[in-house]
Amino acid sequence: MRAEALKGHLDGLLLAALEAGPLHGYAVKEALREITDGRIDLPTGTVYPALHRLERAGLISGSWSVVGGRRRRTYALTAAGRTALGGERDSWQEFASAVTAALRARSWPATS
């Protein structure tokens, strides 16, 4: 999938990846890749800045842990994040319906 197609939808995708429960940053990236059968494989340079931005916005919370001797930052949805995810889903449905209608149109009204 072209990166341009994801513009404006990154936040919703990351929030959706965290809906099932807390994940560390790399696991968020991998969850999206797995859920989409590899069609969405975001670069880590895109995921981490977005996670930090979502954390600053209060949509996710982060906490540090040590796993296998390595420090990891784990992220979880906040109540505000769950609300935002619902809004992202509604917006996506509206957008997808409009694009589907346009792409299915056989002819456009004549303009004068």
Give a brief outline of the structure.
Helix content is 53%, strand content 16%. With 112 residues, it is of the alpha+beta class.
Could you please describe the fold and organization of this structure?
Helix 1 packs across helix 2 and helix 1 packs across helix 4. The protein has one domain: Winged helix-like DNA-binding domain superfamily/Winged helix DNA-binding domain (Arc Repressor Mutant, subunit A). Strand 2 and strand 3 form a beta hairpin. The protein has 112 residues and is of the alpha+beta class. It contains 4 helices and 3 strands. The model has no long low-confidence stretch (mean pLDDT 91). The chain is elongated, with a radius of gyration of 17 Å. The chain has a 3-stranded antiparallel beta sheet with strand order 1-3-2. The longest helix has 26 residues.
- Please name the CATH topology: Arc Repressor Mutant, subunit A
Mean pLDDT: 91
Distance between the termini: 37 Å
The shape, in one word, is elongated
State the CATH superfamily name.
Answer: Winged helix-like DNA-binding domain superfamily/Winged helix DNA-binding domain
Q: Residue share in helices?
A: 40-55%
| Total separate domains | 1
Strand portion: 15-25%
* CATH architecture label: Orthogonal Bundle
The main sheet orders its strands as: 1-3-2
The radius of gyration over CA amounts to 17 Å
Structural class comes to alpha+beta
**Strands, total number:** 3
Biggest sheet statistics: 3 strands, antiparallel
How are helices and strands ordered from N to C? Answer: HEHHEEH
User: With helices defined by DSSP (H or I, 4 residues minimum), what is the helix count?
Assistant: 4
